[in-house]
Specification:
Elements: H1 2-27, E1 44-51, E2 56-63, E3 70-72, E4 78-80, E5 88-94, H2 101-115, E6 122-128, H3 136-143, E7 153-156, H4 160-170, E8 175-179, E9 182-185, E10 188-192, E11 198-203, H5 207-229
Parallel strand pairs: 5-6, 6-7
Antiparallel strand pairs: 1-2, 3-4, 5-10, 8-9, 10-11
């Protein structure tokens, strides 16, 4: 009986010491691999670069980036890619007199903005495709229906050529003035990492896609934080 009691106590001790450590391993180390890394969209160019540590040339890839831009937000502040350094960006296109679609999309962005209100890394950009009508003052008034707090959601305007080039050549989506106050533009929300690379496209009026975007923002933020914690040799 004494021997059995000692074995029982030993097994209980092992259980107490081992199980918490095992669960910690699952929740931390294993948790890092729960999601696959997000894809990088856009044209890519294979290159050879010299690795000074290994002393030889290795294959590498140059990925498409949205490129720098200079636009003005609803508060009259100049916004550029450089000013959003180290930020994860969710961007979309709209115009203030859009009948219904823009309201639906921006309603979903409003929910996302609230979800990430405490995150310093996540920013939202809504870029007008009608900058002639959507001046800073118009955007300021429009934004009041959504951003009634200290928000990282910016409504942007600028000159037409800058905005349309940014849409087509940067974000790789459509933005065209169809005339008579009508515009052809993409309903996609675009997820961009801190390096300016496109990591996902999502239909802005689809609750399913916006839910996926919400999940993939979390994945991207975690990837970014892990990269920052990884020593560079």
């Amino acid at each position: 009986m004494i021997k059995f009691s000692l074995i029982k106590k030993f097994l209980i001790l092992v259980f107490i010491l081992f199980i918490p450590g095992f669960f910690y391993y699952l929740l931390t180390l294993k948790g890092q691999n729960r999601y696959h890394a997000l894809s990088i969209f856009g044209p890519k160019k294979p290159v050879q670069r010299y690795d000074s540590v290994k002393g030889k040339y290795i294959s590498d890839t140059i990925y498409h980036t949205i490129g720098d831009f200079r636009l003005t937000d609803q508060d009259g502040k100049q916004i550029s890619l450089a000013s959003l350094h180290d930020k994860v960006i969710v961007a979309g296109f709209f115009y203030t007199h859009c009948p219904t679609l823009c309201t639906t999309i921006n309603g979903y962005i409003d929910s996302l903005d609230r979800n990430y209100a405490k995150s310093k890394m996540v920013n939202f950009l809504s870029i007008t495709v009608d900058p002639k009508r959507d001046t800073v003052g118009v955007l300021k008034n429009y934004a009041k229906q959504f951003a009634d707090r200290d928000s990282k959601w910016r409504f942007l305007t600028g000159d037409t050529s800058t905005i349309y080039n940014l849409a087509r050549k940067g974000f790789l989506v459509n933005a065209v003035d169809a005339g008579n106050g009508e515009f052809i533009y993409s309903d996609k929300l675009v997820l961009v990492d801190s390096h300016g690379r496109i990591r996902g496209y999502y239909t802005g009026a689809s609750l399913t896609d916006v839910s996926r975007l919400n999940d993939e923002i979390k994945v991207l933020v975690k990837q970014e934080l892990l990269e920052k914690d990884t020593p560079m040799y």
